[in-house]
Design goal:
2 copies of one chain form a homodimer. Chain A is an alpha+beta fold and 267 residues long. Chain A has helices spanning 17-21, 39-52, 60-68, 112-115, 142-148, 197-208, 220-224, 253-264; strands spanning 2-4, 7-8, 11-13, 24-32, 35-36, 74-81, 98-104, 118-127, 156-163, 168-171, 175-180, 183-187, 212-216, 228-233, 237-244, 247-248. The mean pLDDT of chain A is 96.
Chain lengths: 267, 267
């Protein structure tokens, strides 16, 4: 099911700035039993991302009405683009955004991804530093596409990306956390990466549960010394990392605890 | 006139990777009296850009047939995307590229842009360094969009962009050259920027005409000391810069000579 500006359709104008320039933002979220999970946060993030690109964001009620028309259990994707273009990069003052709301089936990940953990590839591609776009889930995703092309072994569930300095930033489709000496670490995303809603929840709920959390630089060798590594996003939830960059982790107590914490809350 | 995979239409699938991820490349070229200018070069560049992103490039004859159906005098745009997506960044092995060939009217630039030169804004946005994407005319153009938003004064014809180190890279829609002490300089684009076909022609023809040319780092203060600054792309041709960053240039002999050189050749 796809709705373009609220109307069932599966095509957009070939002159949409989303296509021409990747001029737009998106959200991926899970619908379960008719509920769009963590919707208040998802919408807050959409508003913030639109504001960062000076895009006008559809009203919450409009998007909620669209989401209600999707299957009760699915992955929902919301795209907001800057709408139609004249020739050239300049924005027409009267441009109306295009909103695309679409569903796809919930992916079936192996249970072992949650219990045993996943195998992760270290990507060769390094993320560029662009503070003006960092954190935003925008439609310029060629770095993710190129990074994802680096492996086709189905046993590998994700790839981790570093920045040019060699610091760990994120997965191609997830945020990364690690646990060491009583502290939960996740990379600072002020120069590159996407700051996901699940990352925000993890930081918030872990802190509320009394865990020490730290957002900052995360050099690769620091990650390799972690007692546990975890990946998260709004669809997968939390996956422990079992194998990465030549090391195997078999302990997963913190990941289990965090996953429980995330599943127990609906906000 | 817009052709999608050779068929007159003005919409593309909402599931096209060009829209979802900016996963594609494009070319903008001028058609004059039924001729697609510098087509051999334009096609070579399209092939190279597709190869850099592991995209399959349509055959020259297929694109030529599309171009022939556009107006005899127009701006033609060719977009090649990676086609339809499954959910996620991974590329389907059997994905067929989408090709979009579209026309827009030739823009009417004031004659004074060529004779007197143009006023240029110094952009505050700094281009990110990404060697894997540098030089390629891909669909991830949010930096250009944000840079173009920095001014709305119609007297300003273009904005110049620096990289994070403060070196001059390009205009939002053009490449930049400067002339000083007998040498024509243009920035190295191995870390950011788009290496346009008109830039390639300028480098080649200037060298053939006996001018010393140099591709390398171009710090802003070096640009400010230039005797002349020029902008070029396949639609505008060559514009001298008259006003930029607080300085005015009124000499334009080299720009006139180069423009003549570019117009005299049809390759």
């Amino acid at each position: 099911m796809t709705l373009i500006d609220g109307i069932p359709a599966d095509v957009v104008s070939a002159n949409d700035r989303g296509l021409l320039y990747g001029d737009g933002v998106f959200r991926t979220l899970k619908r379960a039993e008719g509920v769009s999970l963590y919707w208040a946060r998802q919408y807050r993030k959409l508003v913030a991302d639109c504001a960062a690109l000076h895009l006008s964001c559809p009203a919450a009620a409009v998007l909620e009405a669209d989401l209600e028309r999707l299957p009760r259990d699915c992955v929902a994707k919301i795209i907001v683009t800057r709408g139609l273009a004249a020739r050239g990069y300049a924005v027409l003052p009267d441009a109306l955004p295009t909103r695309i709301v679409t569903s796809s089936p919930l992916p079936l990940y192996p249970r072992s991804h949650y219990t045993m953990g996943v195998k992760v590839h270290l990507c060769g591609l390094r993320l560029a530093s662009q503070p003006r776009l960092a954190g935003i889930k925008h439609l310029n995703r060629l770095e993710n596409v190129l990074a994802r092309m680096e492996w086709d072994d189905p046993a590998i569930a994700e790839g981790l990306l570093l920045d040019a300095a060699g610091d760990v930033i994120e997965g191609t489709m997830s945020n990364v956390f690690c646990y060491r000496a009583g502290v939960l670490h996740t990379p600072d995303l002020s120069c590159c990466g996407v700051a996901g809603v699940q990352r925000e929840r993890m930081l918030e709920f872990a802190a509320e549960s009394g865990m020490a959390v730290r957002v900052g630089k995360l050099p690769l060798d620091r990650l390799m010394e972690a007692e546990e590594i975890m990946l998260c996003n709004s669809v997968i939830g939390v996956w422990p990392v079992r194998e990465f960059n030549g090391r195997v982790w078999d302990k997963g107590g913190v990941a289990v605890r965090l996953r429980q914490l995330m599943e127990d809350r609906d906000d």
